[in-house]
Design brief:
The protein is of the alpha+beta class. The protein is 26% helix and 40% strand. It has three helices and eleven strands; from the N terminus they run αββββββααβββββ. The protein has helices spanning 3-38, 117-120, 128-133, and strands at residues 42-43, 46-49, 54-62, 71-82, 91-108, 113-115, 140-143, 145-149, 152-157, 165-170, 176-178. A hairpin with a 7-residue loop joins strand 9 (152-157) and strand 10 (165-170).
Length: 180
Amino acid sequence: MKRWQIVVLAALLLLGIGIVTGYRLGVRLLRDRVVETLGPGSSIVALKLNWFSLDLLGVTIEAPQDWPTARAFRAERITIVPSLGTLLTDQIHISSIVFEKPYLAVLRTREKMVIIPGLTETPAGKKNAEARLGHASRRTVTISKIMMQQGVVELFDTTVSRPPLKTRLIDRFAGVADDL
């Protein structure tokens, strides 16, 4: 084998190792960023980055201390399909989000409905994104379609009784919300 062929093969091998290492590092960084965004007490078993979608497997968000359940949210799989052309702009468009076998606990108080408190609010009542960044983010996200497949939604209503009245919606909650 000639010397230039060895150099080309070595360069291709190093390039391949660099691409694989960069991909794995990028996926790990993305996974850590998603867990950080979901808030304290959240976890993801695995993150799969596909050509046109992002799959989050085994997503769990723990509930705060005063919550009626141990978990505020759980999903076996979440598939996010972004519009790739908008990822580098200030207005991100998500084509669809599909929650497979989710569990969602919702708390109704006299003032408001609270959904996944660790994700949407801090204990002081400020929006989490604003609290983490110190200001409102310039990026906006538009979601075209949200689907829940084979899910359970529990509504805890404190306006009816103490402890909160629990209403459970099972399997029939497969609604689609368009143009949120």
